[in-house]
Amino acid sequence: MTLSGLLRSTVLAATGCATLAACSGTSTTTASEQQIVVDKATIAVQDLFANTTATSRSQQLLAQAKAVMVCPSVLNMSFGLGGSGGRCVLMSRDARGSWSDPAFYRLSTGSLGIQAGVQSSEMIFFIMSQRGIQALLDSQFKFDATASASFATIGTGAESSTAGARNTDIYAAQKAQGLYAGLSLGGSKLTVDSGANKAYYNQTVGPEDVIVTMRVNNPSADPLRRMMMNVAKLPTASTAHATAATAPASQTATTDVDPVGSSPYPSNYDASRPYSTQTRGVQSSSLAPVH
């Protein structure tokens, strides 16, 4: 079995409680539980960008995005009263093309209808503007007519879709059972998971401390950050005009990284053990108490 397969099996076996907690709105509070989310996000990023090229819609959005949010396992449950929930991580890109550590969020929604079934999907949000980032820094962001940022969803033709206007702040795509699928964000909410952020960084921090000032760091998130670097494709001559504004950052981010499919974990990584138990401790700067 490949390293990716072993890691996937290990992570999935340990995530049942975490997924159910996300759907119920209960916040887990240990760093190891949040590491499961980070490891799943690493796998999801690899999967979401597998087989993409520089001309793929997802790659074009990634080249221009100021931040991304990855929801590695959104569990949709529909038994008369439907609903969905999942853990998400938000990461921003600095001027040099490097990615921040993850800030933790929860995605939740509800729906009514005669439905039946359970499905797990991967979701990714491309945050294209500072306004989009600022909207997500609030404690709760709701996808509705009153949202402080514009958003658009990418349907089944994700790789060729032109959904949304050029000034759209947030794009969202969903991948289920290996294929991109349509989604509806109406009524969905993204809520900052303060307990998860505190547990993972061993102090009280908000998303701005993680993705804006980047004042905290957990080395256990390094594989996720490397994977984000790995999946980016250099633009070809035919697409250079579409990403001219971000070309220096894209080149910086992909000059010395491995192609999609290579493992971001060290060669001596033991897939049967959580990555967090094989790294040094959390590194973080000391912040003033939050009153």
Overview of the structural elements:
The protein is α+β, with helices and mostly antiparallel strands and 291 residues long. It has one domain (3-282). The chain contains nine helices and nine strands. It has helices at 3-13, 16-24, 31-48, 57-64, 130-137, 194-201, 207-212, 222-231, 247-254; strands at 67-92, 103-127, 140-142, 151-154, 170-176, 179-181, 189-192, 216-217, 283-284. The strands form two sheets. Strands 1, 2, 3, 4, 5, 6 and 7 form a seven-stranded mixed sheet that branches. Helix 1 packs across helix 3 (31-48) and helix 3 (31-48) packs across helix 6 (194-201). The protein starts with a helix and ends in a 7-residue tail after the last strand.
Q: What is the secondary structure topology, with strand pairs?
A:
Layout: H1 3-13, H2 16-24, H3 31-48, H4 57-64, E1 67-92, E2 103-127, H5 130-137, E3 140-142, E4 151-154, E5 170-176, E6 179-181, E7 189-192, H6 194-201, H7 207-212, E8 216-217, H8 222-231, H9 247-254, E9 283-284
Helix pairs in contact: 1-3, 3-6, 3-8
Order of helices and strands: HHHHEEHEEEEEHHEHHE
Distance, first to last CA: 50 Å
Overall mean pLDDT stands at 73
Helix tally equals 9
Total number of strands: 9
Which structural category do the helix and sheet elements fall into? alpha+beta
Radius of gyration: 18 Å
Major beta sheet summary: 7 strands, mixed
Number of discrete domains: 1
Overall morphology = globular
- The percent range for helix content is 25-40%
Give the low-confidence spans: 1-28, 112-116, 242-262, 279-291
* Strand residue percentage: 25-35%
